[in-house]
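Form 7-S
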Amino acid sequence: MNSPPWLRAAGGDVVLALHVQPGAKKTEIAGEHGEALKVRLGAPPIDGKANDCLIAFLAERLGVPKARVILEAGQTSRAKRVRVVGVETRAVEAALVS
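Output:
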């Protein structure tokens, strides 16, 4: 089974390519956006609120502590790269696609 283009294994971690839409009505996964997974965020893109919301949402969805969800790239961009430390690719895909 091939992983989707937005999900790749990196050592014992998983790296996600995300396209975020801050300021949405609610925080949710919104399907694929090109080579990225689209995530709508209920927080505004002000003072890092959207990034904090994204990390909290992914940590809860994946069942890991927030400290294991690291925003690697795209702090001020809609295109973000997030590393989730110490998780399996299949588990992440199941949690985000279901």
